[in-house]
Design a protein that fits this description.
Distance between the termini: 12 Å
Enzyme class: transferase
CATH architecture: 3-Layer(aba) Sandwich
Radius of gyration: 16 Å
CATH topology: Rossmann fold
Number of domains: 1
Function: Phosphorylation of dTMP to form dTDP in both de novo and salvage pathways of dTTP synthesis.
Keywords: ATP-binding, Kinase, Nucleotide biosynthesis, Nucleotide-binding, Transferase
Number of strands: 5
Number of helices: 8
Structural class: alpha/beta
Shape: globular
InterPro entries: P-loop_NTPase, Thymidylate_kin-like_dom, Thymidylate_kinase
GO molecular function: dTMP kinase activity
CATH class: Alpha Beta
Largest sheet: 5 strands, parallel
Amino acid sequence: MARGRFITLEGLDGAGKSTHLAFIRDWLAERRIETVFTREPGGTPLGEKLRELLLDVDTEATLDTETLLMFAGRMEHIARVIEPALAAGRWLVSDRFTDATFAYQGGGRGVAAERIRVLEDWVQQGLQPDLTLLLDVPLSVSQARMAASRTLDRFEQEAADFHERVRAAYLARAAAEPARFAVIDASRDIASIQRDIATHLAALKERA
């Protein structure tokens, strides 16, 4: 059985991932591609408990503790959800994966990329997404959307310079791995964004 395809969505909070995940779900379903949808932090019972803790505005943790908790949840996620789905030939779509750790804990918090890579190598054993859709928006767009839609979590409440560093880290990773990343201008109208997403999904399907 052919191994499934692994897709991740990344970007600042407010970039529109939830909206476009629904489009991806429909696109894949129309083509009868069996797909598992999941998220990080989260994706497993343990991961969801860690998510609640990590996003709680009252949680206090050192930078290293926060990073280790992200990878603890990721190891469980890979073992119980991601690898079984891919091995069974299913596609898997995750709302965030390790690029988010490099962006938020690395770019935003200032944890050294070399330390994150050590954890990445240990936990993932070479596992990487086949396609990462980076929904990129200016910070002003991100903040306006968040303010209009929800109560902000622990990361969303960070100052503007934190989010600027997160965005810069995402774009730097995309520039370093252009074969994996598709950077999509998510400040445009929804139809234009989804046409771009469909183009990248179709290209991945052709390679499957």
